[in-house]
């Protein structure tokens, strides 16, 4: 018997022709049916099917031991964190022990004139054009707590050593350049020259000793204009000190 080898695409066509011929013979022939034919050649394989769903992860074996690597180097420090919220105030502590009772001081109620000194004098009401280094005379007493504090020539004579506040107020028609002087030493100077009527003032705190003489004098030509209490020279003891 001879075998005929055919290509895969010819086999289906031949199978269809054989079926047609067999069907036709069965319709027209009443004779004896023949033996069944041999099975045809197997067809080509179909395409692979889609992958199935992923299976569940299996359990690790009994001999599985985790591997721990060496310790790493420390990292760099991070930025400081934000300050936290202020906490609640704590409970008040227990009061401390009472201190010892102080000694009672002596109060005499007697006014001691040796513990204070104050003066205030004004200038006579008249205009004065004074050259430099001229004493301004305040010859009319306003306040005097000690006799002869202010001499008639315009000096304040210190009879109690201590810290004093000294000031003056001057009216001027053109300029007023004045200084507060202790003896022959200038302590502080002021100068105003607006070129019109004005009121100027100066003050200083000085330590003075017994026998010091405080005065107001000019440092440059000045035009002093005095009416009523326009020009005053005032001072008072802040606190006494050892001579």
UniProtKB/TrEMBL annotation:
Q: What is this protein called?
A: Complement C1q subcomponent subunit B
Task: Give the domain of life.
Answer: Eukaryota
List the residue ranges of the region (Disordered).
34-61, 80-100
Keyword match Iron: no
Q: Where are the transmembrane segments?
A: none
InterPro entries recorded = C1q_dom, Collagen/C1q_domain, Tumour_necrosis_fac-like_dom
Known SMART domains for this protein?
Answer: C1Q (SM00110)
Query: What are the boundaries of the signal sequence?
Result: 1-26
Gene3D superfamilies xref list = 2.60.120.40
Organism of origin is Ctenopharyngodon idella
What compartments host this protein? Secreted, Extracellular space, Extracellular matrix
Compositional bias of kind Low complexity: 86-95
Query: What SUPFAM superfamilies has UniProt attached to this entry?
Result: TNF-like
């Amino acid at each position: 018997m001879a075998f005929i080898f055919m290509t895969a695409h010819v086999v289906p066509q031949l199978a269809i022709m054989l079926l047609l011929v067999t069907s036709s013979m069965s319709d027209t022939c009443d004779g004896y049916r023949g033996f069944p034919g041999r099975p045809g050649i197997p067809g080509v394989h179909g395409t692979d099917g889609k992958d199935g769903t992923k299976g569940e992860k299996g359990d690790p074996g009994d001999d599985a031991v985790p591997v721990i690597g060496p310790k790493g180097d420390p990292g760099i420090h991070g930025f400081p964190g934000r300050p936290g919220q202020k906490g609640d105030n704590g409970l008040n502590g227990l009061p401390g022990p009472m201190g010892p009772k102080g000694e009672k001081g002596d109060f005499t109620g007697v006014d001691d004139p040796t513990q204070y000194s104050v003066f205030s004098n004004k200038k006579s009401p008249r205009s004065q054009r004074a050259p430099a280094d001229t004493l301004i005379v305040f010859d009319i007493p306003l306040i005097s707590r000690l006799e002869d504090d202010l001499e008639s020539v315009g000096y304040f004579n210190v009879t109690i050593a201590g810290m004093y506040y000294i000031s003056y107020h001057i009216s001027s028609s053109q300029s007023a350049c004045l200084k507060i002087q202790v003896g022959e030493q200038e302590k502080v100077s002021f100068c105003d020259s607006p070129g019109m009527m004005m009121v100027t003032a100066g003050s200083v705190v000085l330590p003075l000793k017994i026998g010091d003489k405080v005065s107001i004098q000019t440092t440059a030509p000045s035009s002093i204009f005095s009416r009523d209490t326009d020009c005053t020279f005032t001072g008072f003891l802040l606190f006494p000190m050892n001579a």
